[in-house]
Amino acid sequence: MPPHRFALPFVCVLASIIFLPGTLCAQSEVPGVGTWKLNVKKSKLGDEKPPQSLTSTIEAVDGHARVIGVRIDSDGIRTESRFKAKLDGKDYPIVGHSYADTIALKRIDARTIERVDKKAGKIVETSLTVYSEDGKSSTTTGKASNYRGENFLYIVVNEKMP
């Protein structure tokens, strides 16, 4: 099985948990600061096998969101992904993924974030995340390509950890 087979849902999940309204850091306007966990049962990741777990930590650093995601795939293999980005629609590097090398995030409104991932300048994934009013969950819908180059749609649900 190719090593990047499960990378798409990993980043899809990261995209959906980054910027949650109502949890602003006192030092900046980066929403979503805290620790988040994928709700596998409520999520639909195309025909890809779901991971055993995915936990992400978001910190506010110099006006950016620094995101570190730790994923345990269905075979028990641990991977880590990280990026630091603003909500300005510009490309920022993402590390830990074979299918994407940049991420661009843009706030649409107080509860909606648009995301575009690229590899060598070519768009490989797009998504839209909408956050719950109570700040306890988020839902991301998106379109990506799997390791076979086939497009698929996904829905990712995340919950904030206490």
Describe this structure in words.
There is one protein chain. 7% of the residues lie in helices and 52% in strands. The chain is mainly β and 162 residues long. It has one domain: Calycin beta-barrel core domain (Lipocalin, Beta Barrel). Strands 1-2-3-4-5-6-7-8-9-10 form a 10-stranded antiparallel barrel. The longest helix is centred in the N-terminal third of the chain and has 11 residues, at 7-17. It is globular. Residues 1-9 and 15-28 have low confidence and may be disordered.
Task: Supply the key terms.
single chain, 162 residues, mainly beta, Lipocalin, ten-stranded antiparallel beta barrel, 1 helix, disordered N terminus
What does this entry show, briefly?
The chain is built from 1 helix and 10 strands. With 162 residues, it is mainly beta.
**CATH top level?**
Mainly Beta
State the CATH architecture.
Beta Barrel
- CA-to-CA gap between the ends? 35 Å
List the total number of helices.
1
- What is the overall pLDDT average? 80
Order of helices and strands: HEEEEEEEEEE
Give the helix/strand class: mainly beta
Strand content: over 45%
- What is the CATH topology assignment? Lipocalin
Domain count, please report it.
Answer: 1
Task: Based on Cα principal axes, name the global outline.
Answer: globular
- Major β-sheet annotation: 10 strands, antiparallel, barrel
Q: Largest sheet, order of strands side by side? A: 1-2-3-4-5-6-7-8-9-10
> Low-confidence runs (pLDDT<50, min 5 residues)?
1-9, 15-28
Please provide the count of β strands: 10
Rg of Cα set: 14 Å
Helix content range? under 10%
CATH superfamily: Calycin beta-barrel core domain
